[in-house]
Write a structure and sequence with these properties.
Layout: H1 7-15, E1 26-35, E2 40-50, H2 55-65, E3 71-76, E4 80-86, E5 89-90, E6 97-104, E7 110-111, E8 127-134
The structure holds cobalamin.
Amino acid sequence: MMPAPNSAALLLLLLLPGTLTGNTDSVPIQVEVQNPIDKIPPVTYSTHVVYRGILLGAMKTLMASNSDFKFTFTEDPNYGPYLHSVNGVAGNKEKHTYWELLVQSPNGKITRPNVGIGCYIPNANETIILRFGEW
Ligand code: B12
């Protein structure tokens, strides 16, 4: 006879839908491009990411579906994808410019993730801010 599932395991399954079953939910997010250096007005795009998917995936999806949004990245041997350019504007070592990654949660709070586009996992309804800035 099959042993009865223990109650803690049963509770976990009930509380975490999608953890064991395939979750096909698409998580809506926005991507906002800010370039105060070149005085370009901010542009906001809507896109989505798969359940627990990385930001890089959402950015690729957006680029494939919207010809106004494009980006390039380089591969760092230690930290993975480094966002090099957005909409034709590239960071520059000599000029000390780069694309900063910021996240605005639905309550308006802005944070600066301590990982890059290849590691950050967006939450529903976040606005991902790609901000051209100086270091
Ligand atoms: C200086 C620095 C920067 C500078 C680099 C300027 C330059 N060209 O010199 C600037 C300000 C551009 C920067 C940006 C970011 N950084 Co930084 N940075 C550092 C720091 C303090 C030192 C790196 C260094 O000079 N090492 C010495 C040199 C000789 O080694 P290197 O391998 O050639 O270094 C290169 C890489 O580190 C690369 N780099 C720097 N930051 C990042 C971040 C990512 C995700 C990638 C792929 C590459 C990368 O730039 C360096 C110069 O080419 C480290 C922390 C540390 N103490 O190591 C964090 C660090 C590497 N950065 C980090 C982060 C998170 C970022 C940002 C994502 C922050 C943000 N939210 O915007 C952005 C990158 C956004 C993007 N465009 O993809 C994290 C990476 C952790 C991770 N696992 O992803 C670190 C470890 C700091 C932390 N928070 O813990 N960073």
